[in-house]
Each structure stands twice: as structure tokens, then as C-alpha cells.
């Protein structure tokens, strides 16, 4: 059976990797090319770049960073943040991204998901869903978690599968940055509702959280950022821990 | 050693080109076949019917190059179009260099199949499988080749069902996995490929 994937996420601003708390107090964490290759060496299965500013200038910087990274990296690279048009998708892919992650634009115009999948294949299209629990239901938020779309996350997940998304990158807004663990209930619900791979995101703080999200919530992949940048968890150690606990990972 | 990566007009050609450069190939990307290359690469991007349509324009030229001894590497979809027929999009013909058809993974599993799986050596006589047996390689696909002969199948993987991971005949090789995204294991394959071209 396919191994469970560990994905390192880099928040990229211009040509730098940064990390903040609740989008504030951004701190410089390093240069994306060297961090990405370091994570590959440590055993990361994929790298995700999230362009957190996505203005036109930052976008140009990002494309050159994608090119530089793709020329040293030999694991898959996903790029997200501000992808709004088919041209954006095409630019990211031809710069060396293997997949693009679409969030806000997918909600505003779901045809972008369908058209991208038709043109570039489902495998290149990840839909990112940021969900927050409100009165017992998970609701989809867009625009970096600031806009309540009113959409039910489970229904939306099914819809994006229908539209041709190849994967779902599911972030719990409630858990993001807290290091309290993934939102297992949310992730399990979405995993059970769709038949495409689900990447769990938001809340990873210790190795047990990864074990739980794979064994209890049945996620296909788990993504984390801060704990890797800050050296709290080394990917190599995480993978041997998971392997000892009976989770199949690539070592 | 010179490699020509064929550009069908969609997707990421950067990874495969960079991976080939890293093992010492001189790489050119172009949208048509050219002579005087040691290796012609069909990258793994796009959908079968669209790529088949693109390839069919140059079918005779590709066949001539193959007969004259130029080596070919097909990755993922690039391997699939070397088979007779594919059903992705609308049914369309491939190059027919390997006997068999390309169809959806016929098993009760999540599609697309995305991630790292083990490859198993079935036989080692083509010289391309050295150091790859029981290693993890990266897959991203919903379709696989259903070969009508096992003669050219050198490695297999399993995802719900067993399927060809590496096929080879004379100067043509195809991999269902992505060597350019398979980290150090992919690099081993590309090094093998260099030796295989020189043989």
C-alpha cells in the first residue's frame, strides 16, 4: 500500500521563508532553496510553497524561486497562494511546480478547478480547504481564513472531487499554529467523504500527532511547517518513530 | 551525452530536465523530434488523448529514430503512449512500441494514485534495474499499462493490482514511476540509464 507522506510546508514571502503567528510577527526562517533541499535530505516526501503575499511583485519572485528550487529538488513540489487563473496555474507548472494548490479562487469560480484538471490532469490540481468549526459544523473560510463562505466543508470537499481535484489539502483553522494536534474529527469526516487523497494540516506539535492523524483519521499525508523550521521535530526521527509504530513510511 | 525532452505544450518539464542534467546529460527541450541525440524523452505530463494527438504528427520520424538506434525514455504518461492504445479522454492510439493497452487502475482504491511505493524486480537482464529492487519510488497516475506480454516487463509495483513499473525493449525504456521525483532512488535509475545508453 502507498506509504503515508510527510510534507514540509514553506511560507514564502518574496524570496524568503517566513513564519508568523496568526499571520503576524513574520520571522525570517531561511532561504527556500536551501530549506527545501535540506528537507528532502532529511526524508520529506514532498514540499509545499505557500506564497503568503501573492502580490504581482512577490509572484515574480516566487516563479524564480520555484525554478531555482525545482533545479535542485527531486521530490514533488506544490505551489499555492494567489492562484486565480488558468494562466497562474500554467506559469507555476512551467516554472517547475508539479502541482498547484487553489483555495479562494476555487470557491469564487469553481470552473478554475475543472478547467485546470482538464488541461493539466487531476494529479496537478490540489484544492486547499481551510475549515473552522461553527455550531458543530465545519465551515469553509477563504482569503487566508478571514472570509466566511458559509459553505459546509464536507459538501465542498465532495464538490471539488467531482470538479476534478486530485487531492485535498485540509487545514483546520482552529488548530493552525496551536501545536495541539490535528483536528482528527474534521479530517476523518472528510477522508470518509471523498475518494481522493487528503493531506492533513494545522496543529502538528509532536510526533504522536502524526501517528494519530494517520492511524485514527486515516489521512494520506500530513503537512507541517513551524515544528520543522524550529527543529522541534526532525523528519528523519519522525519517520523512524512512525515506522516503529507500524505506519508505513518511506525511509 | 545529449538528451532531447519533448515538449507537448503543457505541464512541468523542469524537474525531468534538471534531473537529467544532474546526472550529466546535456538537455534540450523542444516541441519536435530531432536527430543527433543520444536520448529522446517523453515526459510524464498531460492527458493521453492530447499527447497521443501531438505525438501522432511525428509518428514516422519517431519510428525512424527508434529503428536507427536512438534511445527513448518514457516517464509515466510518456511510457503509456508507447503502448498501442489508451482510454483516457477519448480512446486514441499510441505509438504501439509495446503490446497492450492503457486503462484506469481497475481496483477499489483512491485515484489518482499519489505517493511512494515499492518497486519489485521481475528480471534484471536489461541492465536498468540495478539497485532499485524493493526501493520506494514516486507515483502519480490513475492509469496503468495492461501488457499483453510479460517479455518486456522488468519491474512491477502494486496498488490494488500489480502493474508494470519498468518496461524495456532494445533501445526503448518506460517507467510508470517518476525518476525525476523519486529522490536518490530516481537518481540511481538515471545513472543506470546512462550506462544502458552507452552499452
Automatic annotation (TrEMBL), chain A:
Quote the subcellular location field of this record.
Cytoplasm
Which pathway does it operate in?
Answer: Amino-acid biosynthesis; L-histidine biosynthesis; L-histidine from 5-phospho-alpha-D-ribose 1-diphosphate: step 5/9
What's an example Gene Ontology biological process for this entry? L-histidine biosynthetic process
Principal localisation? cytoplasm
- Record: active site: 11, 130
Keyword terms, alphabetized: Amino-acid biosynthesis, Cytoplasm, Histidine biosynthesis, Lyase
Q: Where are the transmembrane segments?
A: none
Reactions it catalyzes:
5-[(5-phospho-1-deoxy-D-ribulos-1-ylimino)methylamino]-1-(5-phospho-beta-D-ribosyl)imidazole-4-carboxamide + L-glutamine = D-erythro-1-(imidazol-4-yl)glycerol 3-phosphate + 5-amino-1-(5-phospho-beta-D-ribosyl)imidazole-4-carboxamide + L-glutamate + H(+)
Q: Which is an annotated Pfam family here?
A: His_biosynth
Q: Would the keyword Amino-acid biosynthesis turn up in this protein's UniProt record?
A: yes
Broad class of enzyme this protein falls into:
lyase
Q: Which GO terms describe its cellular component?
A: cytoplasm
The function of this protein is: IGPS catalyzes the conversion of PRFAR and glutamine to IGP, AICAR and glutamate. The HisF subunit catalyzes the cyclization activity that produces IGP and AICAR from PRFAR using the ammonia provided by the HisH subunit.
Q: How does it assemble?
A: Heterodimer of HisH and HisF.
Q: What is this protein called?
A: Imidazole glycerol phosphate synthase subunit HisF
**Species annotation:** Saccharolobus islandicus (strain REY15A) (Sulfolobus islandicus)
According to the entry, what is the taxonomic lineage of the organism? Archaea, Thermoproteota, Thermoprotei, Sulfolobales, Sulfolobaceae
Name of encoding gene: hisF
UniProtKB/TrEMBL annotation, chain B:
Protein's GO biological process: L-histidine biosynthetic process
Record note on quaternary structure: Heterodimer of HisH and HisF.
Keywords of the record, alphabetical order, are: Amino-acid biosynthesis, Cytoplasm, Glutamine amidotransferase, Histidine biosynthesis, Hydrolase, Lyase, Transferase
The protein's predominant localisation is: cytoplasm
| Short name of one Pfam family | GATase
Provide the protein's localization: Cytoplasm
Example GO CC term: the record gives: cytoplasm
Identify the coding gene. Answer: hisH
GO MF terms listed in the record are: glutaminase activity; imidazoleglycerol-phosphate synthase activity; lyase activity
Looking at the record, the residues that make up the Glutamine amidotransferase domain are 4-187
The name of this protein is: Imidazole glycerol phosphate synthase subunit HisH
According to the UniProt entry, what is the EC number of this protein? 4.3.2.10, 3.5.1.2
User: Per its database record, what is this protein's job?
Assistant: IGPS catalyzes the conversion of PRFAR and glutamine to IGP, AICAR and glutamate. The HisH subunit catalyzes the hydrolysis of glutamine to glutamate and ammonia as part of the synthesis of IGP and AICAR. The resulting ammonia molecule is channeled to the active site of HisF.
- Which species is this record about? Saccharolobus islandicus (strain REY15A) (Sulfolobus islandicus)
Active-site feature positions: 76 (nucleophile), 178, 180
This protein's pathway: Amino-acid biosynthesis; L-histidine biosynthesis; L-histidine from 5-phospho-alpha-D-ribose 1-diphosphate: step 5/9
| Top-rank taxon, per record | Archaea
Keyword Amino-acid biosynthesis appears in the UniProt entry: yes
Catalytic activity reads:
5-[(5-phospho-1-deoxy-D-ribulos-1-ylimino)methylamino]-1-(5-phospho-beta-D-ribosyl)imidazole-4-carboxamide + L-glutamine = D-erythro-1-(imidazol-4-yl)glycerol 3-phosphate + 5-amino-1-(5-phospho-beta-D-ribosyl)imidazole-4-carboxamide + L-glutamate + H(+); L-glutamine + H2O = L-glutamate + NH4(+)
Amino acid at each position: 500500500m502507498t506509504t503515508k507522506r510527510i510534507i514540509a510546508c514553506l511560507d514564502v514571502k518574496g524570496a524568503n521563508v517566513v513564519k508568523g503567528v496568526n499571520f503576524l510577527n513574520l520571522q525570517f526562517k531561511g532561504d527556500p532553496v536551501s530549506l527545501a533541499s535540506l528537507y528532502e535530505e532529511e526524508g520529506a516526501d514532498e514540499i509545499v510553497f505557500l506564497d503568503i503575499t501573492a502580490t504581482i511583485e512577490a509572484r515574480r519572485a516566487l516563479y524564480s524561486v520555484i525554478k531555482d528550487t525545482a533545479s535542485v529538488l527531486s521530490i514533488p513540489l506544490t505551489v499555492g497562494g494567489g492562484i486565480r487563473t488558468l494562466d497562474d496555474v500554467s506559469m507555476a507548472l512551467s516554472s517547475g511546480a508539479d502541482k498547484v494548490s487553489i483555495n479562494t479562487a476555487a470557491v469564487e469560480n469553481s470552473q478554475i478547478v475543472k478547467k485546470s484538471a482538464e488541461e493539466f490532469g487531476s494529479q496537478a490540481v490540489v484544492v486547499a480547504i481551510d475549515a473552522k468549526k461553527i455550531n458543530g459544523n465545519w465551515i469553509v473560510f477563504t482569503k487566508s481564513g478571514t472570509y466566511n463562505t458559509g459553505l459546509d466543508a464536507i459538501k465542498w470537499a465532495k464538490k471539488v472531487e467531482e470538479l476534478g481535484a486530485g487531492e485535498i489539502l485540509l487545514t483546520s483553522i482552529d488548530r493552525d499554529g496551536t501545536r495541539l494536534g490535528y483536528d482528527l474529527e474534521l479530517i476523518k469526516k472528510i477522508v470518509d467523504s471523498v475518494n481522493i487523497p487528503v493531506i492533513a494540516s494545522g496543529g502538528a506539535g509532536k510526533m504522536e500527532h502524526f501517528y494519530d492523524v494517520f492511524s485514527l483519521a486515516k489521512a494520506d499525508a500530513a503537512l507541517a511547517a513551524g515544528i520543522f523550521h524550529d527543529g522541534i521535530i526532525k523528519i528523519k526521527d519522525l519517520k523512524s518513530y512512525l515506522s516503529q509504530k507500524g505506519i508505513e513510511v518511506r525511509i | 551525452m545529449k538528451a532531447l525532452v519533448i515538449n507537448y505544450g503543457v505541464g512541468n518539464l523542469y524537474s525531468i530536465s534538471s534531473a537529467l542534467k544532474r546526472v550529466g546529460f546535456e538537455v534540450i527541450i523542444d516541441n519536435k523530434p530531432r536527430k543527433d541525440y543520444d536520448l529522446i524523452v517523453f515526459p510524464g505530463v498531460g492527458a493521453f488523448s492530447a499527447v497521443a494527438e501531438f505525438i501522432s504528427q511525428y509518428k514516422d520520424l519517431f519510428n525512424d529514430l527508434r529503428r536507427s538506434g536512438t534511445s527513448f525514455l518514457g516517464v509515466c504518461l510518456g511510457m503509456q503512449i508507447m503502448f498501442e492504445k489508451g482510454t483516457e479522454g477519448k480512446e486514441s492510439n499510441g505509438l504501439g512500441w509495446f503490446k497492450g493497452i492503457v486503462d484506469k487502475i481497475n481496483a477499489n482504491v483512491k485515484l489518482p494514485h499519489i505517493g511512494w511505493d515499492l518497486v519489485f524486480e521481475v528480471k534484471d537482464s536489461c541492465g536498468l534495474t540495478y539497485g532499485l529492487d524493493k526501493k520506494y519510488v514516486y507515483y502519480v497516475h490513475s492509469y496503468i499499462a495492461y501488457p499483453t506480454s510479460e517479455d518486456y516487463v522488468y519491474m512491477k509495483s502494486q496498488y490494488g493490482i500489480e502493474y508494470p513499473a519498468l518496461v524495456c525493449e532494445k533501445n526503448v525504456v518506460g517507467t510508470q514511476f517518476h525518476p525525476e521525483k523519486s529522490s536518490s532512488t530516481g537518481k540511481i535509475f538515471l545513472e543506470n540509464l546512462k550506462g544502458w545508453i552507452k552499452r
